[in-house]
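Hi V.,

Quick status before I head out on leave. The structure for the redesign project is tokenized and pasted below; the design run finished overnight.
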């Protein structure tokens, strides 16, 4: 049977590292993520956080996932971007 999620990390730090790696990839995109995609990512992160073994870490990471906003490319909205 195929699991759509990666294995549950042992702790919140490992999950935060996983999310930071993904955010680094999202930030490489020139255009911001569509709001539907951002909502899907947010819900997937909440599901990942809900699978953490420690209750305290689970609650903290779930709240962090709920308030997540996609990163923007460093040049998005800059004068250089506007001139293009």
């Amino acid at each position: 049977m195929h699991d759509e999620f990666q294995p549950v990390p042992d702790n919140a730090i490992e999950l935060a590292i996983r999310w930071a790696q993904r955010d680094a990839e999202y930030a490489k995109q020139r255009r911001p993520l569509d709001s539907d995609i951002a909502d899907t990512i947010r819900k997937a992160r909440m599901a990942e956080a809900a699978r953490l073994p420690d209750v305290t870490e689970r609650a903290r990471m779930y709240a962090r996932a709920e308030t997540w906003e996609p990163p923007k490319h460093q040049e998005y909205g800059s004068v250089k971007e506007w001139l293009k």
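Above is the designed sequence. The chain has one domain: 12-83.

G. will cover questions while I'm gone.

Best,
W.
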